Amino acid sequence: EYSVTFGPVKIAPGSENTQCMVLRLGNPSAFHVGKIHNLLSGGSHHLIVYRTNDTEEKLTPFDCQPFADTLKPEKGTPLMITQKHEETLSFPKGVAVSLDANQMIRLEMHFVNPSSEEEEVKATSTFISMPDSEFKDEAGFLFLGNPDINIEPHSSETLGPVFMKLPSQVNGVKFFGITGHTHQWGTNVKVAVTDSKNGTDKPIYDVPDWSWSEPATVYQDPPFEVPQGGGFRFSCSWNNT
Q: pLDDT (tens digit, 0 to 9) for every residue of the chain, 241 residues total?
């Protein structure tokens, strides 16, 4: 096991921010990761864990643009997003994330302190190895979303269903887990897989009593493939109080 830790950082009352740290994992040789275990303190909204190509550590938390580098492969690869206070991502049998020796990891923390007292925020991400002899397939991360959302005061709204076609380079990829993500006015996230924009939907993420602050991760066993030319159709709902 190898761990990296964000913070602790003191948060002033009524403040919100996203900050990052770049840390060396400290693994002396390359290895395969079979599980990632994250722990978040109170005040944490979400943590994104990246494998990054940076060569220098940044040990002091610095302001960073939330989610920006999920779309820039040259900046690094997202490995996990956690919105729960404790969560373990377990890859299917034979599946792992490959890390280089002395791998650099970036932790991106979004934190909120709505209280009237100063709060301390901290997060730890632990990478748990699997035997090299068991490794067969590399795990990846796909992030889909829509930031173009505007909800009038004291009103409810649902975005979608929105169809997002998958690029051809992920043809044949198997999906084993899925989660939804909104901020505090979110009331639901639903996702289906479909063979085309006007195709028939197969629901794959529809969680009863869905919670924005503790969104469930739904695992698919066996993993599924998206038909060639198809994609995901999702909807998100909010109640702006």
A: 999 999 898 888 888 889 999 999 999 999 999 999 999 887 667 889 999 989 999 999 999 887 666 666 677 788 998 888 899 999 999 999 999 999 999 999 988 888 888 888 899 999 999 999 999 999 988 888 888 888 999 999 999 899 999 988 888 899 999 999 888 889 999 999 999 999 999 999 999 999 887 888 899 989 999 999 999 999 999 999 9
DSSP at 169: G
The residues facing 200 across adjacent strands are none
pTM for this predicted structure: 0.84
Question: 166: which DSSP letter?
Answer: P
DSSP secondary-structure letter at 62? Answer: E
**CA separation, residue 113 to residues 11, 69, 110 (Å):** 7, 24, 11
Q: What's at 237, amino acid-wise?
A: S
Q: Are 47 and 6 in contact (CB under 8 A)?
A: yes
- Output the six-digit token pair for 222: 């066996």
Q: What is the CA radius of gyration of the chain?
A: 19
> Phi/psi of residue 56, each to 5°?
-120, 140
Phi, psi of 79 (to 5 degrees): -110, -30
3-class state of residue 67 by DSSP: coil
Q: Which tokens in the block code for residue 149? A: 């959302």
Buried b or exposed e, range 126-145, using 16+ CB within 10 angstroms: bbbebeeeebeeebeeeeeb
Q: What is the largest CA-CA distance in the chain?
A: 56
> Where is 205: in which H helix or E strand?
strand 201-206
The token pair at 236 is 């998100």
